[in-house]
Amino acid sequence: MIQALRGMKDILPSDNERFIYIIETASRIAKRYGYDYIETPLLEETSLFKRSVGESSDIVGKEMYQFIDKGGHDVCLRPEGTAGVVRAFIQNKLDKKGGIHRFYYHGPMFRYERPQKGRLREFHQFGCESFGEPSVFEDFTMILMIKDIFDTLGIGYTIKINSLGCPECMPGYREKLIEHLHDIRDGLCEDCQRRIETNPIRVLDCKVDSCQALLKVSPVIVENLCESCDSDFNTLIGLMKSHKLPFELDPKLVRGLDYYTRTAFEFVSSEIGAQSAIAGGGRYNRLVEFLGGKPTPAVGFALGIERIMELVEMPEKGRQGLYLGFMEPEAIGTILELAHRKRQSETVHTEYGKKSLKAHLKAADRLGAKRIGIIGEDEMKAGEIWIKDLETKEEKRIAIDQFD
């Protein structure tokens, strides 16, 4: 028997209602904030992610589904959504048009990592990207959008925030951090020792307990910010406090991608085991330029749909739709005609086989239908249909041409 690949999961009818509800809720809220839908290919050139996510990142170094296609091109399945949206932004010359451009997207991403609860090799994200607005108020507004999404879905959270500085203040901090990391090098894991030379900021993101213990006294970026970054970060903190958002400062929050600058944030939940990120993002003012576009300020986020599936409070839903069936085979044509007409305004379930009334009622109940319509021998002779409301239990016979 052929089975789904490890880390790849079917979304069955038992889960798809929740899955669709998350996407529709997030999309509706993003539209209210002025975001338009964008869709980018699942397959991109590998160089796109090497230049954006960073060759020193685990995503590029260990986790990408990468291969050479039949045309000899080095390609990969997208491991995250931002880089593809930035590529589309540049390719379609939106960077040269100026103004503000805001996009939302959703779809599958792929990373070859160890599957675990809420973390798969094929997973789905919802994300937003804003281009052209340099103000920290845009960062905060994006945080408010995520808040609205999670509040609507009934998910509790805490927000972690940090600043990653800019090209003016980051180099000085980087030198201080490298000096400290060399002092504790022997106690760090193999990955962290390698990152000292390739991307020392990523050491702060290490999840190994022994490394985190050594990093407790490491220099922090928020104490080394330039005047502009410090002003923006203090403004963000003030906004978080004035709106009474549940947040904490996390000087070790660097995110897993190399393109972030200034604001970085994560929404974390303690309802899925240890505190785990359920959404995250930040500002990436240099990424458009890195990928060959005109320098453009930008900020974005993504949330993991599988990560929050079990946390979502679904709204109560009563019975919905109509079930149509017959007790005389000659009525099948009428049932099909009625079903097609009624499907213009509601969900209709049809039964093509002859069944007893009891069997039809059981089938309609199993499907959660609100109403059932049956044509039996008497109804067929009279040109009528028997209707029952399965919530109120009211039943009646009406002429087929009057059935609305």
Automatic annotation (TrEMBL):
NCBIfam families: hisS (TIGR00442). Transmembrane segments: none annotated. Residues 22-329 form the Aminoacyl-transfer RNA synthetases class-II family profile domain. It comes from the Bacteria. Homodimer. Keywords: Aminoacyl-tRNA synthetase, ATP-binding, Cytoplasm, Ligase, Nucleotide-binding, Protein biosynthesis. It is found in: Cytoplasm. PANTHER family: HISTIDINE--TRNA LIGASE, MITOCHONDRIAL-RELATED (PTHR43707:SF1), HISTIDYL-TRNA SYNTHETASE (PTHR43707). It catalyses: tRNA(His) + L-histidine + ATP = L-histidyl-tRNA(His) + AMP + diphosphate + H(+). It comes from Hydrogenimonas cancrithermarum. Belongs to the class-II aminoacyl-tRNA synthetase family. InterPro entries: aa-tRNA-synth_II (IPR006195), aa-tRNA-synth_II/BPL/LPL (IPR045864), Anticodon-bd (IPR004154), Anticodon-bd_dom_sf (IPR036621), His-tRNA-ligase (IPR015807), HisRS-like_core (IPR041715), HisRS/HisZ (IPR004516). GO terms for molecular function: ligase activity. This is Histidine--tRNA ligase. The lineage of its organism: Bacteria, Pseudomonadati, Campylobacterota, Epsilonproteobacteria, Campylobacterales. Its main location: cytoplasm. CDD domains: HisRS-like_core. Its EC number is 6.1.1.21.
